[in-house]
Amino acid sequence: MKTFSFRCGLLALLLSLLVLNALAQGSRRPNVIFILADDLGYQDVGFQGSPDIRTPHLDALAREGVRATSGYVSHSFCSPTRAGLLTGRYQQRFGHINNPPWRPEDSSIGLPVDQLTIADVLRKAGYATGVIGKWHLGAHAAFHPNRRGFDEFFGFTAGGHMYFGEEFPMLLEQRRKAAKPNMESISYTMPLEHNGQPVETKGYLTDVLSEKAAAFVRRHQAHPFFLYLAYNAPHAPLQASEKYLERYAHIADARRRTYAAMVSAVDDGVGQLLATLKQTGLDDKTLIVFLSDNGGQIVSSVARNTPLRGNKGDIWEGGARVPFVLRWPGQLKPGVYDKAVSSLDLFATAAALTKAPLPKDRPLDSVNLWPYLTGKKKGEPHEYLFWHRPQLQMLGVRSGEWKLVQKEGEAPQLFNLKMDIGEQHDLAAQQPARVKAMLAAYAAWREQHVPALFQSPN
Ligand code: CA
Q1: In a designed cystine with 286, which of 31, 297, 353, 369 is the match (CB 3.0 to 4.6 A)?
Q2: In sequence order, what are the beta bridge partners of 192?
C-alpha cells in the first residue's frame, strides 16, 4: 500500500513537471520592441489621416494593433521624453528636464546613473537588450547605453545626426576647424558607434538603422529580446535619399517633400522589421510599440499636427500628443483606445508582460496598460497627466476629457478635448471647481520635483 501511494505521488509529480514544462514552452515570454520616431507630426502618417504622406507599413501596424488616440509623451522635446520613457518616471523627479549638451568629457550631463532603465529591468529578467539609433541621454562614458542596461548599442549619443554616411568625415573635419567650433554641430557628424567603437557607415542613416534592427532580431530570434529602435528621423536636418524623394515628386514644397520622404524611410524600416519578425516566426511573439518622442516641428520642419494646436516644445496638445500604436497579434485585439495614456506607461507594461519584477525602492509613474487595452479594466489609466515647460512658464494637466493650460501669471484655461481637440474654447469660467482640483493636483505633482541637472545647449 505504501509503495503504491509512493508510486502515485511520483507519477503525479512527474506529470505536473511535464505540464509545467509544456506551459513554459507554449508561453515563451514576448519580445518587446519600442520604435521611436523623432519630431513626427501628429498627422504625418497614414493612420493619423495624412493627406500626402504614405505609410503603408505603419498603417498595417496600426490596423493590426491598438491605436492610442490620446497617446502622450511626458515632455514636448527630445531628451526629457526619452528619460521618462526609459525610466517610467516623470523626468522632473530627477531633474532631467532639458536636453543634455553633448559633452563627452562631462560626467554630470546625462540621465542620472541612479535611475534604472527598462533595459536594466528586462536584462536582469534574462532578456537580450539592444538600442539602435539616437541615445541623447548623455555623451560621457558614465551614461553610455552599455552601462544603462543595453547589451548592444549601435548609433550615436548626440541629439541628432546628419543622414549621409559618406559625408560624416568631411563634415566633421570642417566643423572641427570652424572659427568657433560648436559641440552640438560637431556631434551631428561624429562617426556612428557600435558598443563604444566608432564605425564607418555608408548610405542613408535611416536605412542603416533599419538594417541593424532587422539584424538584431535575426541574431536574437532564439531568445527573448528587448529592442529600442530610436530613429532620429524626421528630425532636422531635412535630408532624404532619392529612393524616397521620388515617391513625393507631386509635393511642390521642397521642404515638405523631403520631410515626407524621411517619414517614408522610417515606414520602409518598420516594414523591414515586420517582415523579419514574420520570417523568423516571431510575429505573434512580439509586442511592438510605435510612437513619436514629441509633436511635430511645424515651424521649421513643415511637420503637421492637425487637428491639434501647437508645435514641438509646446504645452498645447501639438507638443506632447503623438501617433501611438501597440501591436501584439493574437494577444491584443485590434482597435482604438481613446483614454489618455503616456509613454511613461511602457515601462510597467513591458515589465508586466515579460514577468520582470518592477523596482520597489522608488516611486514610478508608469501604469501597466495591458488590463486597459484588453478591456479587463475600465476607467482611466491615469487620473491626471502633467506637463511643465519652465522656459515658457507654462503648465498643462489632462484629466479625463479635460485639459488645463496655464501660463504663469495668467488665468488658467480649460478645454474639453472631446468636443474641442484644437483647444480653442476656454471653459474655465464655467468649471471653477474642476480648475481648482486640477491646479491642486498639479501643485502636489510639482512638489516632487528637483532642480534641473543641466541646461539645454544654445
Ligand atoms: Ca524629438
Answers
A1: 31
A2: 199
pTM, 2 dp: 0.94
Residue 277: per-residue pLDDT:
98
Query: Ligand 1: distance of its center to the CA of 301 in Å?
Result: 12
* pLDDT tens figures, 110-160: 999 999 999 999 999 999 999 999 999 999 999 999 999 999 999 999 999
| pLDDT > 90? residue 27 | no
- Phi, psi (deg, nearest 5) at residue 198: -60, 140
Residue with cell 488665468: 411
Cβ pair 308, 421 in contact under 8 A: yes
Is 250 a catalytic site residue? Answer: no
pLDDT reading at 20 higher than 60:
no
263 Cα: distance to centroid of ligand 1 (angstroms): 14
* Choice among 75, 136, 235, 382 that is catalytic: 136
Q: How confident is the model at residue 206 (pLDDT cuts 50, 70, 90)?
A: very high
Closest to 94 (Cα-Cα) out of 77, 74, 76, 71: 74
> CA dist 238 to 4, 115, 298, 300, Å?
78, 33, 13, 10
d(CA 119, CA 94): 18
Using one digit for the tens of pLDDT, what is the confidence trace for 422-447?
999 999 999 999 999 999 999 999 99
Question: 35 C-alpha vs ligand 1 centroid, how far in Å?
Answer: 13
> If you measure from the C-alpha of residue 355 to the centroid of ligand 1, how many angstroms do you get, rounded to a whole number?
30
* Catalytic site residue from 57, 78, 161, 382: 78
Euclidean distance between CA atoms 243 and 258, whole angstroms: 11
Work out the number of other CB atoms within 10 angstroms of the CB of residue 390.
13
- What is residue 144's three-state secondary structure? coil
Q: Tell me the pLDDT band of 28, cut-offs 50, 70 and 90.
A: confident
Q: Burial code of 50-77, b = ≥16 C-beta within 10 A, e = fewer?
A: beebbbebbbbbbebbbbbbbbbbbbbb
Q: Is 136 a catalytic residue?
A: yes
Q: 163: CA distance to ligand 1 center in Å?
A: 16
